[in-house]
Amino acid sequence: MSDEASADESETASVIVVGGGPAGLSAALFTAKNGLETTVFDTDGTWMHKAHLFNYLGIGSVGGSEFMATARQQVDDLGAERRQGEEVTGLERGGDGFVVETDDGSYEAEYVVLATGANRDLAEELGCAFTDDDIVDVGVEMETSVEDAYATGAMVRAEEWQAAIAVGDGAAAALNILSKVRGERFHDFDVPADAERVFGDVVAE
Ligand SMILES: Cc1cc2nc3c(=O)[nH]c(=O)nc-3n(C[C@H](O)[C@H](O)[C@H](O)COP(=O)(O)OP(=O)(O)OC[C@H]3O[C@@H](n4cnc5c(N)ncnc54)[C@H](O)[C@@H]3O)c2cc1C
What we know:
Layout: H1 3-12, E1 14-18, H2 22-33, E2 37-42, E3 52-53, E4 62-63, H3 64-77, E5 81-84, E6 90-94, E7 97-102, E8 105-109, E9 111-114, H4 121-126, E10 149-151, H5 163-182, H6 192-199
Parallel strand pairs: 1-2, 1-9, 2-5, 9-10
Antiparallel strand pairs: 3-4, 6-7, 7-8
This protein binds flavin-adenine dinucleotide (FAD).
Residues 18-24, 41-48, 50-51, 53, 55, 87-88, 115-117, 119, 122, 153-154, 161-164, 166 line the site of flavin-adenine dinucleotide.
């Protein structure tokens, strides 16, 4: 892909994330931060509201709902549109990629990231392949058997469910989308100078 083509696509590429738990918000964070039009639909049934984390690397102790509040603020600040309380009731291929239906309307995007926890109904509706364990079949890049459709978090694991794993799944899906959009392998690396530029005086020495 030429630089011009990849720049054009990255300006217009869009991502719909279905599910705003740790997996979905992690995917949204990376795609929004890197300029993709990102919309998250979420019905707030995340298991995190029942959890208290002592096992999330880098965080000593945090309530699950508190973790979610910070995560939501973070993706909002980075430019994702979060349609909280809007349930996705249908998903199919259409337009330039995918069409999702809610009671409020239809929405289109080139890429879709499914992050609906242990509920796999939309993946089944879209025709994604499942494994013998009855989970959505993905590789390490989290892409399903349906091109440009990704599945992340609890729906791709037969238990072994942890917030840190879900966050990693979402990040992996987003990076793969960004690599496709940019036409080359993509990393989201920041350095201290970036932090100083963004946060100025509040960055610790
Ligand atoms: C009691 C309990 C304690 C736990 N303790 C820990 C712990 O200590 N440490 C740890 O790491 N993990 C813990 N977990 C597990 C952790 O909560 C999960 O691993 C994590 O929440 C999975 O993230 P996810 O994004 O895959 O799914 P979820 O967090 O379940 O998020 C899925 C989201 O998708 C939304 N959704 C579903 N369908 C739709 C739809 N059609 N349209 C729009 N939105 C939709 C749901 O409402 C939900 O908000 C605990 C879980 C429970 C139940």
